[in-house]
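Handout for the seminar on molecular recognition.
Each group receives one record of this type.
Step one: identify the two inputs.
Step two: read the structure output and locate the region that could contact NAP.
Step three: write two sentences on what you found, then compare them with the reference statements printed after the record.
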Amino acid sequence: MATILVSGGTGFIGKYIVQQLCQLGYRVRVPSRNPQKKRSFCDLSCEFLAGDLSELSFARKCCSGIDAVIHLVGILVEQGQETYKKVHVQITKNMIQASKENGVRRFLHMSSLGTRPQAKSRYHQTKWTAEELVRNSELDWTIFQPSVVFGIGDDFTKRLYKMLLFQNNPLLIFPLIEGGKSKLQPIFVENVAEAFVRALPNPSTFHKIYPLTGPEIFSLKEIMMLILEQAHLAYKIEDIPFYTLMRMGLILLSFFIYPLAALKALSQNWKGELWAIYLFSWLLFLQLLQKNMKKRLLFSLPSNIAFPLVRVAEKLIKNPPLTQDVLLMMLEDNVADSSEAVSTLNLKLVSFKRVLPDILDSLSL
Ligand SMILES: NC(=O)c1ccc[n+]([C@@H]2O[C@H](COP(=O)([O-])OP(=O)(O)OC[C@H]3O[C@@H](n4cnc5c(N)ncnc54)[C@H](OP(=O)(O)O)[C@@H]3O)[C@@H](O)[C@H]2O)c1
């Protein structure tokens, strides 16, 4: 049986692909920068190599004696030295070169839906550059472009759920950027894994690009509502436009501004600014409003206000909940027709609604 290198095999999607390959009897090699991750692959008969694929010598080592590469390495958020350019472009370049030097012809590449020339986000721009490297490589390549991927272990549902659970959100208010109107077509992780595994030996998929999308289209707001319902967080969503909240906040401000101004006058060293007083009273007001209504409060935040807030958060917080690049992607629709992949690879698409209870169960364990 052929030996397959799965770069990114330790990640969320990679683990499902590795599992399916092992079940089919393939020999699988998994590289990782973190030797500790070897433990989670003990049950599977695969070879684990510790190292960093941004070093060409390690990429060469990984590609020696293999028959195909499934290249999944990618990051959604840049952190320190781990930039999009390094992880998406440089590592793809290394993998292509190492494949060629080792005579490996088959190369399956993980891209992302929305990847295109002149994309707004740098995530998509660098994914596009990586795709171009693959397309121009003269290898027997296949490229997959999934929309957001869901399943047990996914980061997408986990983040939304944790946020709605308000463990870290004492205010119980949730901004929906531009009303959470942008559309998504989430695809089940097992379907993504099947697409890779079935395309692997199939020459009709050579030099093809397949968008991978699920059977349902949701807005981000609809997804949040589904999570709330499914998790029995029985709160009615109050969709108050941001500017209405601002007006209500301003009315409330008049109740706070005078005592606080008096306090400022009393304390000479107090450096409170007007905007801080306003923000404080406004947040307090939202909290009171929410408490009175006994419901989670989702409000529409215009993107021209969200961007400066996210910019400040990126400067102040090490792992901010949102980055400008992710925000740019959140504002775009992420839907496509995946009928070609479905028919060629015989995929039976699984619905988000069906798997959501299992994902939430796994999160509350
Ligand atoms: N999840 C989604 O919804 C989604 C949607 C569309 C496209 N994608 C794409 O699918 C791929 C996999 O996504 P995922 O959600 O499974 O990601 P993930 O769970 O974050 O896993 C990322 C993988 O990339 C590897 N990696 C990251 N930086 C690396 C580096 N500098 N050197 C070597 N390996 C590195 C990690 O390996 P180690 O940490 O073990 O070294 C890990 O195996 C990515 O390319 C992503 O852009 C994901």
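Reference statements: The longest strand covers residues 140-146. The chain has a mean pLDDT of 88.
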